[in-house]
Design a protein that fits this description.
- The complex is a heterodimer.
- By secondary structure, chain A is an alpha/beta fold.
- Chain A has 2 domains: 171 residues, Rossmann fold; 79 residues, no CATH class.
- Chain A is 37% helix and 24% strand.
- In chain A, a hairpin with a 2-residue loop joins β1 and β2.
- By secondary structure, chain B is of the alpha/beta class.
- Chain B has 4 domains: 267 residues, Rossmann fold; 90 residues, no CATH class; 85 residues, Luciferase, domain 3; 172 residues, ANL, C-terminal domain (GMP Synthetase, Chain A, domain 3, 2-Layer Sandwich), CATH 3.30.300.30.
- Chain B is built from 21 helices and 29 strands.
- In chain B, the strands form 8 sheets. Chain B has a 5-stranded parallel sheet with strand order 4-3-5-6-7, sandwiched between helices. A 5-stranded mixed sheet of chain B has the order 12-13-14-15-16. A 4-stranded mixed sheet of chain B has the order 2-1-11-10, sandwiched between helices.
- In chain B, α1 runs parallel beside α9 and α12 packs across α14.
- The longest helix of chain B is centred in the middle third of the chain and has 22 residues.
- Chain B is globular, with a radius of gyration of 27 Å.
- Chain B starts with a helix and ends in a 12-residue tail after the last strand.
- Classes of the chains: A alpha/beta, B alpha/beta.
- The interface between A and B is medium-sized, with 17 and 13 residues.
């Protein structure tokens, strides 16, 4: 089987606390993510998984704590800055342009990497020596490789809104991949999927990790999937970290068991 | 043709090195491989294989979709005098064991991780299989099994080997003779082990050439290679005829994109089994039903014109000036755009074969100006035995024997073929070879049929299934159950039919209704029903099926030989025939014997003259439980027609 080289800590989350008014969404969470690993954040509904991801992603600003990414420490992140640093994400509720084709949707993931400006792209004149055209075909090549990788050639030109849910999720992943990210944050990539779709998605996640060496942080509440594909797991419950370790360790952790299955009182 | 596959390839490379030989859609763009580049690739691959120690006459397994580099690999194997053995890419692991052991395979060239995984698992049962090369490396970078390597590395090794051995490639290609074995195809035997059908360069290329001459194929043809390469037809269309004519073979991007690729390429020479044509037609009809009223009206109006005029135009018969004008209009508004949507606007010659094609389906394609024809052949005959000439295509025949073919019929109606394209033998199976190839060189097809008045071959059934009626008005007449069943199944309301009559005085049949079609029909008539059994027992439905049976009878009456096979009584079964209940084979063919046994009371009642009969049988439900269903079924009498004897022309 695959022998990936798990490297140094790439993302270090320290003592994060996040409050919405009186509601404590996260309290004093710390964990780290190593390069090239698949790191899962699990927990029951309302445990604070998505909030955690949103802090890393710069959508929320935590009241306490800081995040270190590649040696640089931030007390709050801003989404654009995060994206520029090479962190991409997918969304639990899809964030795709329903009326646009699969190809165009994935192309939007290239946005940050486009150098020509909107005027060059809109007005194509020979005296601009075709910079926009050249750039577009370079981006198109990247996008086509992703389409090939995700095996969605047959729907390349289909509007995303007409695709089944499982395929839309795959397109969402494709759009995130188009950024050529170093870290990929996946928010419940398998929510609402049937068993077969889950298997496909798991395979793609592992393939991304394997082929591109992308570090993956994923949120999932389907335990079986998580245990199969992740290297290390963080368990949250009511905004607190209750477990951290390899799937086997986490599975044996009594607190985790009680959070998932309940305890006898 | 006194030549070999690699020699033909080198010929094209020498004469027109820049012309496209193969095209493949990669990353959304059609990328061509020229004959010149192909020759270089084949040279390097064959160098790599030579270095790996491939012997003359040795078999190499090739598994994958249609991919240019797999085609090149087959040519490379042939260059060294080896024999490519293409296997079905979707077969289960167990199905590979017999071919690989039987053909003593050491080397395999496969497409991707999926195939690599399968073959690696086979190393236990097939220890001789030592080297595996793969085309696509995705997911394989961390595999470290011994003997597993990429095609790229084989090419690299071959390049070095070629530099070290100048002239070796030319010498080995020149050493190959037309009588050498060119390829082996395993036929999926329904019983027992599959048989390896051995073909030489001569047999394949001779047939390829005869077929090409028959249809005047040129180097300008475009072909889409989308059927499994392990099937001899695909091999003929995209290897043998490709080399014989020098046209372009296009490989689709993936299995899911075939329809899109078809439209983009617009092949001029096309083959598809009837179910593909049926699927295309259904999708058109469904979309048409959703179209606006004007469009739909226009479509139906011009389709009527096409039905009336199209086939005659296609057959080159005279047509009135006004009809011609109407057709021309229809072509502008409907047929042309429709052909384009189907991806068939450039088709000059299209073939279908493999099973019976419904007359309506067949006429539909011909009426909108697609030259769809039928052919007859099998793996053992290198495909081309009979082909339909351009102006003589009919739904119920398979064409005339082409150049080089002789046809003879035995007393029992079995078709015997003599042709330069017959198989050399079944590999390591002289008993099976002797069974089909007799001392005088006739190949026993196992099909029953006859040549009609215009010299066209008509296939009616498998020879072993053809029986005789005994006693009754049609005493001694031939009974071809499948022929009758197929005619019934052409009606959309009939899903499955089982005809009985061998050694009986008349023909009776079971019918399975098509739930969807009959359900729709019932809904349109406000006929309520609770489920399959209820619907199948409705008197209105029995009446509907009776009409179908009687139309079939009228049709059969027109056929001198088979007029006796008209159905005099039938019943509509209360349950669908299922493979799980042992009533159908896994490929959905009816198991007549098993059905007759299981439903014996029903069969007896039909022949005994009863008006209805109670039956209770055990069934297996989808969740694995068993139970029984019972019903009292009405037996319906159908009108039969006197045989129409053809007036002496």
């Amino acid at each position: 089987m695959a022998q990936r080289k798990i490297g140094e800590v790439i993302l270090d989350v320290k003592n994060i606390s996040l409050r919405f008014g009186g509601v404590k969404a996260l309290s004093d969470i710390s964990f780290d993510v190593r390069e090239h690993e698949v790191r899962a954040i699990i927990g029951p509904n309302g445990a604070g998984k998505s909030s955690m991801l949103n802090c890393i992603n710069g959508v929320y600003t935590p009241q306490e704590g800081n995040i270190t990414f590649r040696g640089q420490t931030f007390s709050h992140m801003n989404s654009r800055q995060v994206a520029e640093m090479g962190v991409a994400r997918t969304f639990q509720s899809l964030a795709l342009f329903k009326g646009m084709s699969v190809l165009d949707n994935i192309m939007t993931g290239r946005n940050l990497r486009m150098k020509t400006n909107i005027f060059q792209q809109a007005i194509r004149m020979p005296f601009w020596s075709g910079a926009a055209e050249r750039e577009e075909s370079e981006h198109r090549e990247v996008v086509e490789k992703i389409i090939d990788f995700l095996e969605i050639q047959a729907v390349r030109k289909t509007p995303v809104g007409r695709l089944p849910y499982g395929l839309q999720k795959r397109v969402d992943l494709g759009r995130a991949l188009a950024m050529e990210p170093q870290v990929l944050l996946l928010d419940e990539p398998m929510a609402g999927m049937n068993v077969e779709e889950k298997q496909d998605m798991s395979r793609f996640i592992l393939d991304v990790n394997d082929e591109y060496g992308t570090t993956i942080v994923l949120i999932e509440h389907d335990m079986s999937v998580v245990m199969d594909i992740s290297d290390r797991v963080v368990v949250l419950d009511y905004g607190k970290k209750i477990g951290d370790g390899t799937p086997t360790e986490v599975r044996a952790n009594p607190e985790v068991i009680s959070a998932y299955l309940g305890t006898r009182h | 043709m006194q030549t070999t596959f690699p020699r033909l390839m080198l010929d094209h490379a020498a004469r027109r090195p820049q012309a496209a030989a193969l095209r493949e859609k990669v990353y959304g763009i059609w990328q061509a491989l020229s004959w010149g580049d192909l020759a270089v690739l084949v040279r390097h691959l064959s160098g790599g294989l030579a270095e790996a120690g491939l012997q003359r006459g040795e078999h190499v397994v090739v598994v994958g979709e249609n991919r240019p580099r797999l085609y090149a690999s087959m040519l490379a194997v042939q260059s060294l005098g080896g024999v490519p053995v293409p296997l079905y890419q979707d077969a289960a692991i167990g199905e590979y064991i017999f071919p690989i052991t039987n053909a003593e395979v050491r080397f395999a060239i496969v497409e991707d991780q999926e195939q690599v995984d399968k073959l690696l698992e086979l190393r236990g049962p097939c220890p001789a299989l030592t080297r595996i090369w793969f085309d696509k490396s995705r997911g394989l970078r961390n595999y470290s099994e011994p003997g597993l390597a990429s095609l790229d590395s084989l090419v690299d090794a071959g390049r070095a080997w070629d530099t070290a051995h100048p002239g070796a490639f030319e010498a080995t290609v020149a050493a190959g003779q037309p009588q050498d074995v060119a390829a082996m195809f395993f036929t999926s035997g329904t019983t027992g082990n599959p048989k390896g059908v051995v073909h030489t360069h001569f047999t394949l290329l001779n047939r390829a050439d005869a077929g090409a001459r028959f249809d005047k194929l040129t180097a300008a043809e475009e072909v889409l290679a989308y059927l499994p390469p392990a099937w001899i037809g695909q091999n003929i269309f995209s290897c043998a005829q490709w080399l014989a004519c020098g046209y372009v073979v296009n490989c689709p991007e993936s299995t899911g994109t075939v329809m899109i690729d078809l439209k983009e390429i617009g092949p001029t020479y096309y083959f598809a089994p009837p179910r593909v044509f049926e699927g295309l037609l259904t999708s058109v009809m469904i979309r048409m039903e959703d179209a606006g009223r004007i469009k739909r009206g226009l479509f139906h109006h011009f389709m009527n014109v096409a039905r009336r005029v199209g086939p005659a135009l296609m057959d080159g018969k005279p047509v009135g000036a006004i009809d011609k004008l109407r057709y021309r209009l229809g072509d502008f508004f409907i047929y042309g755009p429709l052909r384009n949507t189907l991806g068939l606007s450039r088709v000059r010659v299209a073939y279908t074969a493999g099973e019976a094609i419904g007359p309506d389906l067949f006429t539909f394609y011909r009426s909108i100006g697609i030259n769809l024809k039928q052919l007859y052949g099998s793996t053992e005959t290198a495909v081309f035995v009979c082909l339909q000439p351009d102006h003589e295509a009919r739904a119920d025949t398979v064409g005339v024997p082409i150049e080089g073919v002789e046809i003879r019929l035995t007393d029992s109606g079995e078709i015997l073929v003599k042709s330069p394209g017959l198989l050399k033998e079944y590999y390591k199976n002289p008993a099976a070879t002797a069974e089909v190839l007799d001392a005088d060189g006739w190949y026993h097809t196992g099909d029953a049929g006859f040549l009609d008045a215009s010299g066209h071959l008509k296939i009616i059934d498998r020879a072993k299934d053809v029986g005789r009626l005994i006693g009754g008005p049609a005493d001694g007449a031939m009974f071809a159950p499948k022929y009758v069943e197929n005619k019934l199944k052409f009606f959309p309301y009939v899903k499955e039919a089982v005809a009985f009559g061998d050694k009986r005085e008349k023909v009776c049949a079971f019918v399975n209704i098509d739930m969807e079609a009959v359900g729709n029909w019932a809904e349109k008539r406000n006929l309520p029903y609770a489920g399959y059994t209820d619907l199948a027992g409705k008197p209105q439905v029995l009446e509907l099926i009776r009409e179908c049976v009687e139309k079939t009878n009228a049709d059969l009456a027109r056929d001198e030989l088979l007029a006796g096979s008209q159905i005099s009584r039938f019943l509509v079964l209360h349950k669908q025939l299922e493979a799980d209940d042992g009533e159908l084979t896994r490929t959905s063919k009816v198991r007549r014997g098993a059905i007759a046994e299981k439903y014996r009371p029903l069969v007896d009642a039909m022949y005994g003259g009863a008006a209805e009969q109670f039956i209770e049988i055990a069934v297996k439900f989808e969740d694995g439980r068993s139970g029984s269903v019972s019903a009292t079924l009405k037996i319906v009498d159908a009108k039969t027609f006197p045989a129409v004897t053809r007036k002496a022309a």
